[in-house]
Amino acid sequence: MSDFMMFSLVPLTVAVIIGMTCALLGNFLVLRRQSLIGDAISHVALPGIVVSFLLTGMLSSAAMMLGAGVSALITVAMIELIRRLGRVEISAAMGVTFTSLFAVGVLLLEWHQAGGVHLDVEHALYGNLESLIWFDGTGPAALFDPVALADLPPQLARVAWVGLLVVIFVAVFRRHLVLGSFDPDFAASVRAHPVLVDLLLVTMVAVAAIAAFEAVGSIIVIAMFICPAAAARLMTDRLVAQIAWSQLFAVISAVLGYLLAGHGPGWLGFDASVSAAGTIATLAGLILLLACLWGPRRHRTGVTASP
Amino acid sequence: METWWRALTFTLGYNTSLVTIGSMLLGAAGGMIGSFVLLRKRSLVSDAISHATLPGLALAFILAGLWQGDGRWLPGLLLGAALSAAVGLWAVQTISARTRLGEDAAIGAVLSSFFAFGVVLITVIQSMQVTGQAGLTGYLVGATAGMLASEAQLIALCALGLLLAIFVLRRDFLLVCFDAEFARTQGVSTGRVDLLMLLLLMAVVVIGLKVTGLILIVALAIIPPVTARFWTDRPLRMVALAALLGAAAGYLGVTLSSVQEGLPTGPLVVLASFSLFMASFLFSPWRGVLATLLAYQRFRRRVHLRQGLLALAREEPIFDNLTLKLLRRQGYIRRDGVATLPGQAAARDAEHEERLWSLYRERHPDDALQQEHSGLTPIARVLSPDAIMALEAQLPPRPEGGR
Amino acid sequence: MNRAAWVSEEVAASPLAVQGLTVSYDHRPVVYSVDFVTPPGSMTAIVGPNGAGKSTLLKAAMGITRRLTGDVRVFGRPIEEMSRHIAYVPQRNSIDWDFPATVIDVVAMGLFRNLRWWQFTRRRHREQAMESLARVGMEAFAERQIGQLSGGQQQRVFLARALTQEAELTILDEPFAGVDAATEKAIVEVLKRLREEGRTLLCVHHDLATVRDYFDHVLLLNVRRIAAGPVEEVFTERNLQATYGGRLSTVQLTRLVGDPVAAAQRSE
Fold first, then answer.
1. Does residue C262 sit within a domain?
2. CB distance from A107 to chain B under 8 Å?
3. How confident is the model at residue C262 (pLDDT cuts 50, 70, 90)?
């Protein structure tokens, strides 16, 4: 029990919160056919963090979130500028933008390797969920012990705040989001500010990606954005139900993935464990695979009807 | 600086020169195949392909490690990477064709979950007794330092082969990119050509893994074609230019990375490519941003000025601030909005032009529609003096008070 | 400066008046210097060839697309303050109909402006939406997934959404494109009833053969305004020729200008 409290409680909670947060936003990315914005923004999380680290010299939550917001805005601005002014197709504009920014991030990281920064490329890509150990979590009593609670890894509070922020955002802007996803022209005609809401959504995606960065890395988080929401899309034709399914899938893959990563190899007789973040995302991918094969609403319905 | 110069002049040793040449060939191949993929609007499929190589790489590494104790056997790794990339490619195609999910969601899901599975396998490798584990990181962000001569030869040869293959197939690709319907009537199987295109793209990605790493390899297939697009509208020229730009990026990136120990090749190649892109994006005289913005501003001013003058001539109120400012700056109106003498003359001229144009449009609707002019071009530049004389003669007397 | 003083009475009464509206993509004007005053209580068709800027004109007037120049007024006041008086029915095929929403969800979107973010759609909102659905004869489909509708049904749902907006002016973009004859008839009925209530309708229309039957005013557009006014005065061979250039054959033209055979043509 104390082992669980010390080593697993925090990572598991963090994984569940990240999974649910990302999946919530992912629903709108999938509906807008903008999944690749999630892809681009997650890649850009790396340079965002590295630059904010280099500027402030530490990894405080505030600096990181600021870095996230700024890097997201820069990314979107670059994509839009290249697309509009250069008349380049959007996915190519994204490709140009995120590869270049990611390259800047990697280069800066390597540059400052000598300075003893505890960030490195591998962690940036894989994440390290297992490192979130709660040393004072020696038993159930610790849950009520303020001293022990103060020792909780700061990442937990960070993802919790971000999760709350995202939930508030979706709740407040739910109608704007739906309208802008379904019919942007109509949305503009009733002054639902689809462009602005779009920008806010992308910023939220960036904030979630950065909050998830340390735990799961900048590639695996893409799976958390897209896989549960895409699988949910194949289960139902109602938006509310789709969001509920996506949350369920996110929780299943987080919990099952974490346990499997820690104990799976042991059951097979190996004395080791595998990457929890990787296993979680692999499971999310498997859930999507199952939904593609057997999801009750896996086929398109909205074929533009012929006259 | 001196090291860089020696790398640039191919005097830094056999291996470095070989790697440089290999990367240039690879860059050229990436630029060429990327141009076709860009024209097909499927650029980011390469992102899915490249991330999907990781599980194959890791599995091949495990197998080779179990077999001979060291996982670093380049041909085997590349084969593994190619196989899993093929599975990823198939998954993207199938998901977007058979389910309601769009290609964007398919790409995102495949790239991230394949990559995640690869990460799981890498943590398996870390718990195994296999040497050469550090070498795997090189496949993430690219590392050409310490590459064996045999590896460099393999990469260079494969890149050369790909380059030739793409060159031979360029016309088929072009046909399918521009007019799939027409290609079908010509007996070209578009499905097969598309598949061939993506397979070649996959081959470029796999061969390039060691050089730029799997996360950044997409840049090789995206940035040079996009850059080339700024300089030409002719497709085959664009392909050739993209090949050149890709080679240049490979050349600059690889030589730069040999300057200092531990500089990752991938980011440097990408940034070299990106600087070429930025230069074209800003300064290309045809499609560059500066040229476009300047032309837009000029056009906007002309439209505002013309509409302002017409409003003056018809004694209509003007609300638009920019129009008022332009009129004032030209000295056509006073500060209180009343037309000056030159303003009245200019307004009369504009009105006259406008009436000539509208008469022309009325008399020769077909010709007028063909020209798609906005009426801003002076009519004397479009029609012959005789034609204008004829129109002048037909002008009805000026109607009272405009419309 | 008191700008309202500049506005003529005609403009002050009109639910949508544009002056000098120009929209351009790059340096190519799509709509050039268009002046148009929608007569209140009219049913106006905007007619012109493909690429004549019909949809762009409307989108730019509503502020959906950016305009290069131009002044747009609703009852004499700038559109920015008055946009709630306009309902908009976009082109049906500009939308992903595979969206997870039911018919009633879509119709309720018309209430967007009436709901603050903390409010939920209540029964009275649903009733209002159902009322609009009933007006287009679609109340039986309220709980249907939108992807399962036929083209004509989709168009009716869009019209119902505009009805819930209860606006003075309804702007429709190609409402009859790709719909069945029954739907076309039903939509026309609804539009005519709206006009009887004193509301104004502005409609991009592609079928020249039905202009005379459905509309009382027409705006002929090909990048520029070619002509505008009551159908009997403006919808003439000469104006059509100026609008379409060589794209209409003489046979087509003679058939259009008041020929009963044209009626048979449209039900294809």
1. no
2. yes
3. very low
Mean pLDDT of chain C: 86
Q: Is residue C141 part of a domain?
A: yes
Instruction: Return the pLDDT at B374.
Output: 60
Residue C18 is part of which domain span? 9-255
- The answer to whether B44 touches B217, Cβ cutoff 8 Å, is no
Alpha-carbon gap, residue B205 to B212, rounded angstroms: 9
The secondary structure of B102-126 as a DSSP string is -HHHHHHHHHHHHHHHHHHHHHHHH
Predicted confidence (pLDDT) at residue C258 exceeds the cutoff of 80: no
Residue A172's φ and ψ, nearest 5 degrees, are -70, -45
Determine the residue of chain C that is closest to B292 in CA distance: C26
pLDDT of residue C154: 92
Nearest to A277 by CA among A201, A200, A223: A223
Contact A231, B105 (CB under 8 A): no
B14-35 average pLDDT score:
89
CA B310 vs CA A55, B169, B307, B326, B396: distances in Å: 56, 57, 5, 13, 18
pLDDT tens per residue across span B329-381: 888 888 887 888 888 888 888 888 888 887 887 777 666 666 655 667 777 77
User: Where does residue B128 rank: exposed (0-12), middle (13-18), buried (19+ CB within 10 A)?
Assistant: middle
CA–CA distance, A154 with A159 (Å, rounded to integer): 9
DSSP secondary structure code for residue C99 in this structure: S
Among the partner-chain residues C62, C92, C152, the one whose CB lies closest to the CB of A189 is C62
CA dihedral of B31, B33, B35, B41, whole degrees rounded to 10: -130
- What pLDDT does A131 receive? 80
- Whether the CA torsion A13, A16, A22, A28 is positive or negative: it is negative
Residues of the domain holding A277: 2-140+152-294
Question: Is A225 an 8 Å CB contact of chain B?
Answer: yes
Residues B223-241 pLDDT 10s: 999 999 999 888 889 999 9
Read off the pTM: 0.87
Q: Which residues of B touch A221 (CB under 8 A)?
A: 112
Domains and CATH numbers, chain B: 2-283 (1.10.3470.10), 290-394 (no CATH)
**CB of B274 less than 8 A from some CB of A:** yes
pLDDT confidence of residue A115: 47
Instruction: For residue A302, tell me if it sits in a domain.
Output: no
- Has residue A299 been placed in a domain? no
Going by C-alpha positions, the residue among C202, C164, C156, C196 that lies closest to residue C62 is C202
The interface predicted TM-score of the complex, written ipTM, equals 0.91
Residue C232: CATH number of its domain: 3.40.50.300
Of A174, A183, A239, the CB nearest to C100: A239
State the pLDDT at residue B111: 94
* Chain A: residue whose CA lies nearest to C176: A307
Q: Is B317 within 8 Å of C22 when comparing Cβ atoms?
A: no
* Burial label, B386 (beta-carbon count in 10 A; 0-12, 13-18, 19+): exposed
Identify whether A305 is part of a domain: no
Shortest CA distance to B111 belongs to which of B46, B63, B65, B193?
Answer: B46
Residue A258: C-alpha distances to residues A102, B1, B232 (Å):
28, 49, 52
- The tally of domains found in chain C comes to 1
- CA nearest to C172 within chain A: A186
Question: For A98-124, what is each residue's pLDDT tens digit?
Answer: 999 999 988 888 777 644 555 667 777
The domain that contains A156 carries what CATH number? Answer: 1.10.3470.10
Does the structure show a pLDDT above 60 at A97?
A: yes
Residue C263 lies in a domain: no
Instruction: Tell whether A35 is within 8 A of chain B (Cβ).
Output: yes
Asked if the model's pLDDT at residue C251 lies above 70, the reply is no
Asked if C71 lies within 8 A of B375 by C-beta distance, the reply is no
B 326-365 residues with CB < 8 A to A: none
pLDDT at residue A57, as a whole number:
72
C-alpha A205/C-alpha A237 separation (Å) is 24
